Amino acid sequence: MIRKLPSPLLKAMLVICLLSRALHAQVPPPALANAKGTVIINARVADGTGNPLRKTNVRIAGERIVGIGDFKAEKNDRIIDAKGLVLSPGFIDIHNHSTDGLESDPLAETQIAQGITSIVVGADGDSPWPILPWLDALRKNPAAVNVAAMAGHATIREQVMGKDFKRHATAEEMAQMAKLAEQAIEEGAIGLSSGLEYEVGSYSSTDELVLMATAAARNHGFYMTHIRDEGNKSFEALNEEIAIGQRAGIPIQHSHIKVSTVAVWGQALEYIRIIESARKRGVDFLADCYPYDAWHSNIKVIIPDKQYENPQSVEKALADTGGADAVTITEFKPHPEYASHTIAELAARRGISPVQMYIEIVREGDAANTEAGVIGKSMIESDIKAFYQQPWVMVASDGGIGSHHPRGAGTFPRVLGVYVREKKWLTLPEAIRKMTSLPAQRLSWKDRGVIREGAIADLVLFDPNTVIDRSTFAKPFELPAGIEKVFVNGELVWDAGNPTGARPGRVLPK
Ligand SMILES: [Zn+2]
Q1: What is the mean pLDDT of residues 85-97?
Q2: Ligand 1 centroid – CA 17 distance (Å)
Q3: What whole-number distance in Å separates Cα of residue 224 and Cα of residue 339?
Q4: What pLDDT was estimated at residue 442?
Q5: 224 C-alpha to center of ligand 1: Å?
Q6: CA within 20 to 30 Å of 308's CA: 76, 89, 154, 347, which one?
Q7: Distance, CA of 371 to CA of 353 (rounded, Å)
Q8: Contact in structure between 435 and 415 (CB atoms under 8 Å)
């Protein structure tokens, strides 16, 4: 690159540029430590690494943390007295569905209100495309939060196979997909995601995924996956995932870990044992988990064989999800009065069987070109607890701007309020580690997810005694309580219950 430069002036500029980048990557230049800044005093600091809380002052200047310790504030410093509050690194949501939401709501109110400072979009195989213009648009019109994007396997598959995707890909098609995956990562995607329970991804072979993951690994991407089955066949799906990681030599991020049908409820420890043994063999395996025991989707997702009007299929599916009294309608346009009732209740009222009731709702929905929304039980509490207590499991929402599941506005405060304060499953420093340095480790972000001198000032101040989620299935956008202030790249974006209007978010690379 230097050889092609036409003039010594340009060479000099390049050297300056490289020097300043090197400085940015290290500690801030000494001058910055004296610039006008913000000093947070009296907070108890959870530094993101899992270290115990410690009371200390933290000074921010520009985008960085420039001082930690028992120092005095300087003359022009703005002082924030954070007595009674905990200061932690900003929360990193590695599984976030805000791709569309960012455009209409760049302030990302439901996200910053939770203390989220960085999100990763493009999960479950479905990503923006092409990547570069999408990222460029975000650079021009930034959000309140930092954003990184995955390249979606299904998105790429459709680029290559078009509508003819209901089959295995040919060798030539696979090679093309691998090339596009590599290209997407060169353009700024940070890894490859897949969603193998969904229509387009479900037709792919293991070999196809290995080839694409290998291409992603060449550019230091990681592989994030919603595996092929989270219910009856979740163990098979887990083994395939581990094999893909090993064969491609790529770090794995297992999305929303769960054992989600009656047949596998109670088997989290066995699931964990398989993952532990892969980790011992050197597989770089991390997972995320959302803090809810219920999923929210359309009424058809519970039937894996897609035989929605076949009584045997419906009967089995209802049994697998915990029975007709465990499936609740959330909305149904042809019969709004069904909302908040289980299929069992509706069937009893009509004097028909739950299977007939299910089929009737599907038929009426099809006729009206709509589908009923349903909530189903995804996991039993002991399994959620077992997953959360693994050091390699982090917190992620699987929500995002506009999500109709309460996780979209409640995930991080819920873990702090329910799993830390009420149930005591986790210590506060460990929960914070799962929201900050652990996702940062997967993302190879050296300067985020931790409070130390020189790190980027993505920060959250919250009240550990009151922090709690308030979003529910009935009111999914209700904002949480207890998150007092949120800083992104050193700028205040959330203050005392309101967005400040600042949009300092950046597009983040590997
Ligand atoms: Zn998913």
Answers
A1: 98
A2: 40
A3: 34
A4: 98
A5: 10
A6: 154
A7: 20
A8: yes
CA 161 to ligand 1 center in whole angstroms: 22
Query: Are the beta carbons of 401 and 105 closer than 8 angstroms?
Result: yes
HSE, CB side, 13 Å, CA atoms: give it for residue 71: 17
Give 192-206 pLDDT, tens digit per residue: 999 999 889 999 999
Alpha helix stretches (DSSP H) within 26-73: 30-34
Listed in sequence order, the residues at least 6 apart from 284 whose beta carbon sits closer than 8 Å to its beta carbon are: 245, 250, 251, 252
Q: How far apart are CA 364 and CA 362, in angstroms?
A: 6
Q: How confident is the model at residue 473 (pLDDT cuts 50, 70, 90)?
A: confident
Angle CA 456–291–114, to nearest 5: 40
User: Given this model, what pLDDT does residue 35 score?
Assistant: 56
Tell me phi and psi for residue 393, to 5 degrees: -105, 125
C-beta of residue 122 within 8 angstroms of C-beta of residue 149: yes
> Would you list the DSSP string of 407-437?
HHHHHHHHIIIIIIIIS-SS-HHHHHHHHTH
Using the mean position of ligand 1's atoms as its centre, give its distance from the Cα of residue 16 in Å: 44
Q: How far is the centre of ligand 1, averaged over its atoms, from the C-alpha of 226 (Å)?
A: 5
The string of DSSP codes covering 169-203 is PPHHHHHHHHHHHHHHHHTT--EEEEETTSHHHHT
**CB neighbours of 99 closer than 8 A, spacing ≥ 6?**
121, 122, 127, 128, 149, 400
- The alpha carbon of 315 and the centre of ligand 1 are apart by a number of angstroms equal to 25
d(CA 466, CA 481): 7
CA–centroid distance, residue 447 to ligand 1 (Å): 28
The tokens for 470 are 């308030």
> Tens of pLDDT along 163-179?
999 999 999 999 999 99
Nearest to 89 by CA among 487, 499, 505: 487
From residue 212, how far is each of 16, 157, 158, 223, 365 by CA, in Å?
38, 10, 14, 9, 38
Q: What is the distance in A from the centroid of ligand 1 to the CA of 198? A: 9
pLDDT tens sequence across 110-156: 999 999 999 999 999 999 999 999 999 999 999 999 999 999 999 99
What whole-number distance in Å separates Cα of residue 371 and Cα of residue 368? 8
389 neighbors 281 (Cβ within 8 angstroms): no
Report pLDDT digits (tens) over 346-358. 999 999 999 999 9
pLDDT of residue 12: 45
